[in-house]
Amino acid sequence: xxxxxxxxxxxxxxxxxxxxxxxxxxxxxxxxxxxxxxxxxxxxxxxxxxxxxxxxxxxxxxxxxxxxxxxxxxxxxxxxxxxxxxxxxxxxxxxxxxxxxxxxxxxxxxxxxxxxxxxxxxxxxxxxxxxxxxxxxxxxxxxxxxxxxxx
Length: 151
Known about the structure:
The chain has helices at about 1-5, 10-20, 30-40, 45-65, 70-75, 80-90, 95-100, 105-115, 120-145. By secondary structure, the chain is mostly helical. The relative contact order is 0.16. The two termini are about 25 Å apart. Helix content is about 80%, strand content about 0%.
């Protein structure tokens, strides 16, 4: 899928960002870094597109969690992981999504569980915008600074 999407530039980044935030275990950076290196003048668009795609995916995940807890969430997340994730939300509230958005924690799982624990979509989208925007900005700036020498 990533090979296919890599031929579509910003549209491919957007589709990957949405899919990654819902179900796909491939990070957006897989397309974002090479795009930023090859298209430094379009970095702001790449940041915006990847952030918006990730927000949309998180919003979909939130609604899936809210309306499909018993049918969807319980089938894809085992009880132990669900309980641990709920503890993060109990401790950090909506910022649990922000933590997952900035770290290797599974962002898609936290987006789903945000709906399960009743966090509103507005809060999810706001925190996702801030945290994913920060992450993708840092990645793009890093890629721009190091350029082709990145490897």
